[in-house]
Specification:
By secondary structure, the protein is an all-beta fold. The chain has strands at 4-10, 19-23, 33-44, 50-57, 65-73, 78-80, 87-91, 98-103, 109-117. The chain has one domain (4-117): Jelly Rolls.
């Protein structure tokens, strides 16, 4: 299979529970598949500062971690979470890694994720 670049946009993330912003798809026939996250940007659409977090819900049900926790985003600004780093996400054919986001203010933050799938 060919590698596919994808852009996923999630507007107005929640302030009460994690919003799934990307889930690694399974390969053909429910085979394992990996994705490489090459960028995450969070944009504050409001006129006051907010905080937001990106969380990795690990496919194995353990070792869940924050990529960034309670990061401050000034009014009208954006935050580049990855800053040149890469993040490998996996789907083992039945369970998938999920990237999730949450903000302290409802509908204040849009999140854009860039990934390379099927690597």
């Amino acid at each position: 299979m060919a590698n596919d670049f994808k852009r996923i946009c999630t507007p107005s993330i929640s302030d009460s529970s994690n919003s799934t912003i990307y889930a690694v798809p399974a390969g053909a026939g429910s085979t394992a598949l990996e994705s490489i996250v090459i960028g995450i940007t969070m944009a504050n659409k409001t006129t006051s500062g907010v905080t937001a977090s990106i969380f990795l819900d690990n496919e194995d049900g353990t070792n869940d971690v924050y990529i960034v926790k309670d990061a401050s985003i000034p009014a009208g600004a954006s935050l580049e979470v990855m800053s040149g780093n890469k993040l490998v996400l996996m789907n083992d054919g039945s369970n998938a890694d999920n990237l999730e986001a949450i903000s302290n203010t409802a509908s204040a933050v849009d999140v854009t994720v860039s990934v390379l799938e099927d690597v």
